[in-house]
Give the backbone structure.
Amino acid sequence: MNDRRFLVLTELFLPTKGGTAVWFDEVYRRLGGRDTHIVTAAVPDAVEHDRAHPNTIHRLRLRHSRWLRPASLGIYLNFFRKSLTLGWRHRFEAVHAGRVLPEGWVGWFVARLIRKPLVIYAHGEEITTWSRYPRRRAAMRFAYRHADVVIANSEFTQGELLKLGVLEERIRIIHPGVDLERFHPGHATADLRQRLGLGPEEKLLLSVGRLSRRKGFDRVIQSLPGLRQQGLAVHYALVGIGEDERYLQQLAQEQGVAGQVHLLGHVAPEELPRWYCAADVFAMPNREIDGDTEGFGMVFVEAAACGTPALAGLAGGTGAAVVDGVTGLRVDGTDEARVAAALTRLLTDEELAARLARQGLERARRELGWERVAERIGALG
């Protein structure tokens, strides 16, 4: 598929952290060669990343302005100038926009001027969060409804698009994927567990993601005292950074489990699959807070590909990433007791945990490898 010609507009692209950035990098390196052009943000360490990339990458300074109104106008103009210039110079098959704002709006103008189809990705949380603001909601509604195709990452996101009046026949549900060569069972983990001071019989819970309240990491910490009262020797490791770091540290101290909670920050890319394999349970009992929710949850699929059973919340689109009772468990992330009960089940019922882990791994290998995801996106034209 490396002969495809796409113009891709995405503010989020590796080496920027996050699932969305990973998604676009993984897909378009498989879909196109140098004739696929990525217009994205200039970020630290981008030069080294771009040097070995199969696509042609264009980096822009995308910053909000103190003087322009709206403050994001400069970002839109930079995207538009560069994208239109590329559109005139190259014979692209289609314009793909990584998000509805700003990329979708810019993509709509460019696609119409060069007379090519427009595809916009929808992730879910941007719709639920930005819909609280009338102007943003109107802008999203316009861009989504004028796209030729909208890619929804889950059935939940599809539902949010339908509420905005997007025609169902224009929506395609395509789940994000996982690098099966990188994320797989069998990684060496003894040194990681030793690093945390875990004995052979102690259990490890793992979370990966931005330290944000809606992820539900605080619910896991609140569950630890009860788990230990049941005789479960359990530690909790969190990979990621974010605004809740101090809150989680203080919560662990208040709960008397500071010695069992390990905030690891960023870890080396080669270590991340090993942490998934080191864990007995992957936990992200997410919940919605002020409209902010989880649109899918790529970390659940990474855990599944490593053979680790998962606990997710009920909010948002995590049901597409964790099939309740099949590849993991889902509970109400606002309910501390339900989170604790689900963690207890996964830590004590070895047969259940093994079955969920096996079925999650099978699904990841069958449906969610990046090659399969790229095929589905490429088939859109």
In short: The chain has two domains: 6-174, 190-367. The chain has a mean pLDDT of 95. The longest strand covers residues 203-208. The radius of gyration is 21 Å.
